[in-house]
Design a protein that fits this description.
Strand order of the largest sheet: 5-4-3-6-7
Largest sheet: 5 strands, parallel
CATH architecture: 3-Layer(aba) Sandwich
CATH class: Alpha Beta
CATH superfamily: 5'-nuclease
Oligomer: single chain
CATH topology: Rossmann fold
Number of helices: 6
């Protein structure tokens, strides 16, 4: 949290996310793939990324989470189709380095979030991006990152 002193008072400074940078977590991608609530918003973001209006990110760790869930629920053929679909989009898959692993580990140690979720949070912080999700687990981080909540 950033603070400033104005007339002797401590005030929070509003975060200034890059208005054209978004991070999808596993929840958002699963909503899109399962045509669940919020799918239309994620689809719109995908189209905006395709046209170059925004940058849309997802951590490879979150991709792994989506992959195992798809395979477990619907099998390996659906997984292959999902991977082909995502590869054909403008979704930027962020590789993970040591600094990002340690940033995610710190987030996981500090907040009660899933391990893969910690990577989405770290990626949003790295790119000063808006995290797109419907997962209520992120509510505890609303003071740390900008979140766009998908409709339920």
């Amino acid at each position: 949290m950033k603070i400033c002193l104005l007339r002797g008072k401590t005030q929070k400074l509003k975060r200034r996310p890059e208005l054209n940078h978004y991070v999808l977590d596993s929840y958002a991608v699963l909503a899109l793939l399962g045509n669940e609530p919020g799918a239309s918003r994620v689809e719109k973001l995908m189209l905006q990324a395709q046209s170059g209006k925004i940058k849309l990110w997802m951590s490879l760790i979150n991709l792994g989470e989506v992959a195992y869930i798809i395979e477990r629920r619907w099998g390996v053929e659906k997984l292959r189709a999902m991977l082909a679909y995502l590869e054909a989009t403008a979704l930027l898959l962020a590789e993970v380095n040591k600094d990002q692993v340690l940033a995610a580990a710190h987030i996981k140690a500090t907040y009660t979030v899933g391990y893969a979720d910690a990577f989405a949070i770290a990626l949003a912080k790295q790119h000063t991006a808006v995290l797109v999700t419907g997962d209520p687990e992120y509510r505890q981080l609303e003071h740390q990152i900008d979140i766009e909540w998908l409709a339920e």
